[in-house]
Sequence to fold (390 residues):
Amino acid sequence: MIKIFKSLPVRLISAVIIGILVGLYANEAIISIVLPIKYILGQIIFFIVPLIIIGFIAPSITKLGANASRLLVIAIVLAYVSSIGAALFATGAGYAIIPHLNIADNSGAVRELSAMIFKLDIPQIMPVMSALVLSVFIGLAAVWNKSERFIGLLDEFQAIVISLVIKVIIPILPFFIGFTFAVLAYEGSITNQLPVFIVVILLVMVGHFVWLSLLYGLAGLYSGKNPLRVLQHYGPAYLTAVGTMSSAATLPVALECARRSDILRSDTVSFGIPLFANIHLCGSVLTETFFVMTVSQVLYGSLPSFGTMLLFCLLLGIFAIGAPGVPGGTVMASLGLIISVLGFDEVGTALMLTIFALQDSFGTACNVTGDGALTLIISSYNEKKGQSLN
Fold:
């Protein structure tokens, strides 16, 4: 029984349940204590994220040797194809389903949070995308120059980062998730706003599972291996993503889950999982595409034309690669597209941000879980090319 409660999935589920209960019955005094603790825990997690990216991607590129550049291009192409594929899938579903739904804008107001009594900022040493680009460049440069000492230094840095993940990130994650859900429940985001677009949210979640099934099916066909041997380990990562609403914050758990699979190469796990966590946002893209069509129908009385949606999807796939893996990162990065391509006004943009936030956690969970399928593809690619670890 004690071992069960020590497992990460049980701790995460318990954190969600306890957090919601605390939020539903908490008063302003309690929330005023919860808010700064949640903020500080989040600051610690997001401070370490760039270190995780550098610590895993750069050494992994050096281990991939001469094929590192080629594999990087393949990974980016896979992420882009998956994202625009998810967007086009959502577009087709939107044209088929949304006109037949009776959806009204009745979101209602949420309870306003009081100002934090204490706030401790812990800025990241660099933005997530800067860490990603730096990792790629120094990893490739180390391979090109055959810098053995620097490669050894990167390996030592990776070991240090792994210690941070095990001893810092994993222990505080359940508390961060619990406090997050306590705040959501107190605001009313769970009890008041969720019923408004419940049908749309459920449809999007079904779309997530359909897309994940397709990704893992294709990965299984390409690799010739059972993709369930990867997917079966992703429960903790899925739950963490639901709680944190951030691919970047879920990265430590996702790495741990992928490593448990016996059909993924360790070198491509260390390379692929951190990389895809920042450039592969298929679930968020699918969600945003379906939601912009819904908002267009609700506010403007019609769906965007197919040509407009096609342009939106193709551009959104590019924006998704550059979007930060943080809560709301995809929709925030693509606000320019929503306004310029789709013609949304302030009301439409605000409603889009609201309903996207309602299910951002499930879109993030789809992103993270889909990374396992793409990692299986590049892992099998390495095996077929006969590449061995350095």
User: Anything to note?
Assistant: The longest helix spans residues 148-187. Residues 90 and 207 are 7 Å apart (CA to CA).
